[in-house]
Design goal:
Length: about 270
C-alpha cells in the first residue's frame, strides 16, 4: 500500500498464469452475496458470533454502497478498491497492510493512540471469548433466538413442533455420565417447558448440565467452568480450577476428559 490516504494498493505480483483481478461489478456481487449470507436464517445462537455476523452484514452493505458510488464518479479509483478487496492472494486484503494503512491514514492524522486501539481490540476479543464460553441459561438462549427464529430452525429441518416432540428430537440430557435427567430443548427456548428446564445451563464447551450439576460445577462455591483454549496445532480444554485436558487431536476427546474431571469433582464434594 502507498503512504497516501487514498485506499489504493500496488498491483499484486502476478503469477505465471497472469491472474485476472476482479472487476468492480464482480466485487459488488461478492459484497451483495456476503450481505445476504449475514441475514439468512437461522441466525447464530452464540452472542459473540451473532454480533460479528451483524457487524459483517452492516460493513458489507456500507462497502457495496460506497463502491457503487465511487464507480459511478471515479471508475479508476473504484477499480483500485476492487483490487484492494481482492488482496494479493485472492482471499481479501492483507491484514498487516490494512493495519499499517489505518495507522498512517486514520489514527496518526487524528492524533489517536493506535497502540491503545490495538490493546482495546485485544481486550474486547478476550471478553467476547469469555462471554461465549460462559454457561448460559436456556431462557437466555431463547431470548437471543426469538420465536420466529425458533420456528425457522425447525421448519428448515423439514419438520414441525409436533413432529419434533413425537420423534424426541428436542430432548437433551445432562453432559455428566450417569445422569439421566433431560429436558425439552425447543420448549425451553420458547418458554413452554416451565419448571422442567429451570436451572439447566448450556456450555459451548461441553453441552448441557442439569440444575444439580450446573449448580455444583458451574455456579456453586467450587467453580469448574470449561473453556476451549486454542493452540498453534491442537486445542485443549481448560477448567477454571486449573485442570487441563492437555492438547487433544479431537475435541470429543477433550470433552470426555473433562467429564472424568467433573465426575471426580462431584465425587469429592459428595
Amino acid at each position: 500500500m502507498t503512504d497516501t490516504t487514498a485506499p489504493t494498493t500496488a498491483q499484486p505480483h502476478a503469477p505465471d498464469d497472469e491472474e485476472t483481478l476482479p472487476s468492480v461489478q464482480e466485487t459488488l456481487e461478492a459484497l451483495a452475496e456476503l450481505y445476504l449470507r449475514t441475514i439468512a436464517l437461522p441466525l447464530p445462537v452464540n452472542p459473540a458470533t451473532f454480533g460479528w455476523q451483524a457487524a459483517a452484514g452492516a460493513l458489507a452493505a456500507l462497502s457495496a454502497r460506497l463502491l457503487h458510488f465511487v464507480n459511478t464518479t471515479f471508475p479508476g479509483p473504484a477499480a483500485d478498491l476492487a483490487a484492494f478487496y481482492h488482496g494479493p492472494l485472492g482471499d481479501g486484503p492483507h491484514p498487516l497492510a490494512v493495519t499499517r494503512w489505518l495507522q498512517r491514514a486514520v489514527a496518526d492524522p487524528a492524533g489517536a493512540d493506535f497502540e491503545q486501539w490495538t490493546a482495546l481490540a485485544k481486550q474486547q476479543a478476550l471478553e467476547a471469548r469469555t462471554v461465549a464460553s460462559r454457561p448460559t441459561g436456556l431462557a437466555e438462549q431463547g431470548a437471543v433466538l426469538g420465536d420466529d427464529t425458533l420456528a425457522v430452525l425447525i421448519s428448515g429441518l423439514e419438520g414441525t413442533w409436533q413432529e419434533w416432540a413425537e420423534h424426541g428430537s428436542q430432548r437433551r440430557g445432562c453432559f455428566l455420565p450417569g445422569c439421566v435427567r433431560d429436558f425439552d430443548l425447543t420448549g425451553a427456548w420458547a418458554g413452554r417447558d416451565g419448571a422442567h428446564s429451570e436451572g439447566w445451563l448450556s456450555s459451548t464447551a461441553v453441552g448441557y448440565a442439569c440444575p444439580e450439576h450446573a449448580t455444583y460445577l458451574w455456579a456453586g462455591a467450587h467453580q469448574h467452568l470449561p473453556q476451549w483454549q486454542l493452540g498453534a496445532e491442537r486445542d485443549q480444554l481448560v477448567c477454571s480450577c486449573g485442570w487441563t485436558s492437555g492438547p487433544v487431536r479431537f475435541r470429543g476427546h477433550g470433552t470426555v476428559l473433562y467429564q472424568a474431571h467433573a465426575l471426580e469433582a462431584v465425587e469429592a464434594g459428595a
